[in-house]
Design brief:
Layout: H1 4-28, H2 37-50, E1 60-62, H3 63-68, H4 79-84, H5 90-94, H6 98-109, E2 120-124, H7 133-145, H8 150-182, H9 191-205, H10 208-213, H11 219-236, H12 242-256, H13 262-281, H14 286-315, H15 322-329, H16 333-340, H17 343-358, H18 370-391, H19 402-425, H20 440-454, H21 458-487, E3 490-491, E4 500-501, H22 511-521, H23 524-551
Helix pairs in contact: 1-8, 1-9, 1-23, 2-7, 7-8, 8-9, 8-11, 9-20, 11-12, 12-13, 12-14, 13-14, 13-19, 15-19, 16-19, 17-18, 17-19, 18-20, 18-21, 19-20
């Protein structure tokens, strides 16, 4: 087995590699290519400048954000109406004159004449459905950077967001390291041993991690809160004290004020704690455990309940979701499913969720041919399958089942969302599986438990290695393909969302032109430097693991 010192060094290199890769992704990502960034940025700006919380139905997109489309390209997801209004896609922008490039560069890459401030635009802010803690957290960063260039300010806001998620990986790896050292069963196949390595390679296996976490969006802070909750649960062992329940209550409250995903997480954690104590102590422990759970629930209700009460009071929907509000106004779930449900839509919705967990693209929704996504989707199915295969040997109240208690309620919520979309529009697509990455810590633990059980089986081991190698190749190719999209050298259309080469294949190797174009919107030199450092540190981490494994 790899000794503790080598394990710590290797995972340190791997984790720093993921940090560098995240920076590379951010540095090369044009403004607003992260999912829903225009809306999330508008919420941050409104809170920082007006000291008011965005509320569903009345909050607007920032006028500054809407004005951006007059000067520089925006994601292809909004391209047809934008082009009709005189705006640009990446292709139309870079096919334009040098004067257009220069005007776009000045607007994107130079500081504004005066600090930006929130002015209501025309469009409704559809992300105002979310609770405010993430936006409150980023508001001071916005105020410190609101006289930066557009790409400079967005780089900082994205970087802070990604650091939340990256720290979640660090906390997860640290928790496993401490448990490995304190656990008598620290043989080579220990779940903690495998999970430690899992935290270092997770973003390489499922590159949707970067598109979800390395953007302006609240999932990254959710991942950090989940990591802290996991740390408390694991360290509490079999008998968590009232202090642990209080800490969990506070963390779950903060989570509920970031995103509604924490409501099913709260339900799963509470059930696990109750059943675990009951299994260990029997009826004798029920009374004290119920008291502790009530304290935890009371803390969650007092700190975060006001937001959900306001949702119910104003919209009649506790969660405050845009789609749930529209569905309620349309007559409810069952009434609309009768007219719109089909098995095909239900299957496509779940297939899309599985695929986007592995790779989701960016807000342009460009995609490679589906055949190349099949192995990535299979990797997701393989992960969950080996965990289910492994966890059967444990009692449902053991720590090995904790990932399931955290993940399954959220999966149920996503399944419900697919039904909501079918009821509203007749198709289930649009439920992003990438959202699940906020559960990265329990997901990596599930990966560790699964790998521990199958690694001795040659067929499973070979399958895991092949899928990992494919994921590395896929991630590398898609990294460059995405950047060609942002230069206009590749494009998509309204009718065809697959990558298409704009001119001829040889143009993709004109690196001076690629850099020149990317420099208009992003930071290509920083991005490519970070990418190279990421490769170096990840290779060093794998080299340590390989050399030690061969010599042991």
């Amino acid at each position: 087995m790899i000794n503790d010192t080598i394990l710590k060094r290797s995972v340190m290199f791997l984790l720093f590699g993921q940090l560098f890769f995240g920076i590379a992704h951010i540095a090369l990502l044009p403004p607003w290519e992260g999912f829903d960034e225009t809306a999330h940025y508008s919420s941050i700006q409104q809170i920082a400048d007006t000291k008011t919380l965005p509320r569903y139905g009345s909050a607007r997109i920032s006028g500054e954000v809407e004005k951006y489309a007059k000067f520089a390209p925006i994601p292809y997801s909004g391209s047809p109406p934008v082009e009709k209004n005189g705006g640009y896609t990446y292709k139309s922008f870079f096919d334009s004159s040098t004067e257009t490039w220069e005007r776009g560069f000045n607007h994107v890459s130079k500081s504004p004449p005066k600090p930006r401030e929130f002015i209501e635009g025309e469009k409704i802010n559809w992300q105002s459905q979310h609770p405010p803690v993430y936006y409150l957290t980023l508001a001071p960063i916005y105020l410190l950077t609101n006289n930066f260039s557009w790409n400079g300010q967005l780089f900082v806001l994205r970087l802070i967001s990604y650091l939340f998620a990256w720290i979640a990986l660090v906390i997860g790896a640290y928790t496993c390291l401490t448990e490995l050292n304190s656990n008598s069963s620290s043989e080579p196949n220990s779940i903690y041993y495998w999970a430690i390595l899992g935290f270092g390679i997770w973003p390489l296996i499922f590159p949707s991690w970067f598109t979800d976490m390395a953007r302006i969006g609240n999932d990254s802070l959710c991942a950090l809160i989940i990591a802290l909750i996991w740390f408390v649960l694991v360290k509490s062992k079999n008998y968590p004290s009232i202090k642990s329940y209080v800490i969990l209550g506070v963390l779950l409250s903060i989570g509920c004020l970031i995103k509604v995903f924490f409501i099913p997480v709260f339900a799963g954690v509470a059930c696990f704690l109750f059943l675990r104590r009951w299994k260990i102590e029997g009826r004798a422990g029920i009374k004290s455990n119920l008291f502790n759970l009530l304290v935890m629930a009371l803390i969650v209700s007092v700190i975060s309940g006001w937001w959900y009460y306001l949702n119910w009071y104003h919209y009649g929907v506790v969660l405050g979701s845009d789609e749930m509000i529209r569905l309620k106004n349309a007559g409810g779930l069952l009434a609309n499913l009768v007219d719109n449900f089909s098995i095909g839509a239900w299957v496509r919705g779940h297939a899309a969720a599985v695929t986007t967990f592995a790779w989701s693209g960016t807000w342009s929704f460009a995609r490679p041919p589906y055949i190349f996504l099949v192995p990535m989707a299979f990797a997701v199915i393989f992960l969950f399958s080996i965990y289910i295969y492994a966890v059967r040997q444990y009692n449902v109240t053991m720590i090995e089942w904790l990932p399931a208690w955290c993940i399954l309620p959220v999966l149920a919520g996503l399944g419900y969302h697919i039904l909501v979309r079918i009821a509203l529009i007749g198709e289930g697509r649009g439920t992003g599986g990438y959202y699940l990455h906020f559960l990265v810590v329990p997901l990596v633990m599930a990966l560790g438990i699964g790998l521990k059980s199958i690694w001795i089986k040659k067929g499973f081991r070979i399958t895991a290695i092949i899928l990992f190698i494919y994921a590395i190749i896929f991630s590398s190719i898609i990294f460059f393909t995405q950047n060609f999209l942002f230069t206009g050298m590749m494009h998509i259309s309204e009718d065809n969302k697959f990558y298409q080469i704009s001119n001829n294949f040889s143009s993709l190797f004109n690196w001076p032109e690629v850099i020149t174009r990317l420099s208009v919107l992003a930071f290509p030199y920083l991005g490519l430097t970070a990418f190279i450092f990421g490769i170096i540190t990840v290779v060093m981490g794998f080299k340590l693991i390989w050399r030690t494994s061969i010599n042991s």
